[in-house]
Amino acid sequence: MTLTLNRPDKLNSFNPELHEALRAALEQARNDAAVRAILLTGAGRAFCAGQDLGDRDPRKATEAPDLGHTIETFYNPLLRLIRSLDKPVICAVNGVAAGAGANIALACDIVLAAKSAKFIQAFSKIGLVPDSGGTWTLPRLLGEARAKALVLTAEPLPAQTAAEWGLIWKAVDDDQLMPEATALAKRLAAGPTFGIGLTKQAIHASAANTFDQQLDLERDLQRMAGRSADYAEGVAAFLDKRAPEFKGR
Ligand code: T3D
């Protein structure tokens, strides 16, 4: 399933309608067994500029907004949904990814970006704290030194540097972004997606587990994977010297 953030005149920034549409589409993807990979991208020249600041104009408000409420209502459920999907989520960052837009991209499983794209932790420019998981994702992927500099300065990070620093999987020529991302999504969708879902679970759990706990988890997940039709098919296909036909179960 390909999902395209589609408010290009506002650089695909989030208003409640976009939040609701994306959440509904992701829930549909989660519940539909025929969907075995998700590709997220943006329409026009940007991936996503984060929160629509037009909806936050202080000159039109009588009191300060409760941003904790909007984070709890919109952003956190979206991030939890993306992280908990047991299907691979590929993000094709087609242009600038700023604020929550950057951190939503970074929460996906595999991130490809056009070489012209950049990642901006824009929050500090307007007096906010990075959200959408940024304060968790960035230090883990980059280390504290680079994470802190990025969030405190809000300097744009070009796609190529993001790839060199290990923040994303790769930066590709602009005209190759969608062909490459689509081919990757199709490849994963045709793969053993039951095992892929378990693998995601293991990697995510490692952030909070000790080595011993992780070994136990791997044992439990391998037990489940070993009972899957995809595993039987994978081994049979290997022994038959033919391409496997995985069903995702
Ligand atoms: O509020 C809460 O619920 C809390 C949650 C917060 C999460 C967040 O994401 S906070 C961070 C919000 N985002 C930003 O601060 C980024 C703001 N945008 C920018 O800094 C720049 O637009 C970009 C660096 C992303 C791109 O710059 P550039 O020069 O390529 O484009 P531009 O000219 O600035 O923008 C083009 C149009 O998009 C422009 O509209 P116009 O003048 O053509 O009618 C601009 O106003 C609009 N736009 C860009 N970003 C936003 C936006 N409109 C509303 N909200 C935006 N975030």
Overview of this structure, please?
The chain has two domains: 2-189, Alpha-Beta Complex (2-enoyl-CoA Hydratase, Chain A, domain 1), CATH 3.90.226; 193-240, Lyase 2-enoyl-coa Hydratase, Chain  A, domain 2. A five-stranded parallel beta sheet has the order 1-2-4-6-9, with helices on both faces. The chain has a four-stranded mixed beta sheet with strand order 3-5-7-8. The chain is globular. Helix 4 (134-142) packs across helix 5 and helix 8 (193-206) runs antiparallel to helix 9. The chain is α/β, with parallel strands linked by helices and 249 residues long. The longest helix is centred in the first third of the chain and has 18 residues, at 67-84. The protein has helices at 16-31, 67-84, 100-106, 134-142, 144-153, 159-164, 177-189, 193-206, 211-226, 229-240, and strands at 2-5, 38-42, 46-48, 89-93, 96-98, 110-114, 118-120, 157-158, 170-172. The protein binds ligand T3D. Residues 10-11, 13, 49-54, 56, 67, 70-71, 96, 98-100, 120, 122-123, 125-126, 128, 131 line the site of ligand T3D.
Sketch the topology as an H/E string, one letter per element.
EHEEHEEHEEHHEHEHHHH
End-to-end Cα distance, whole Å, is 18 Å
Mean pLDDT level: 97
Number of helices: 10
| Main beta-sheet strand count, sense and barrel state | 5 strands, parallel
Percentage of residues in strands? 5-15%
Helix content: 40-55%
Shape: globular
Number of strands: 9
What structural class do helix, strand and pairing data support?
A: alpha/beta
Please give the order of strands in the largest beta sheet.
1-2-4-6-9
- List ligands, each type once: ligand T3D
Keywords: Isomerase
Organism: Mesorhizobium retamae
GO molecular function, one term: isomerase activity
EC number: 5.3.3.18
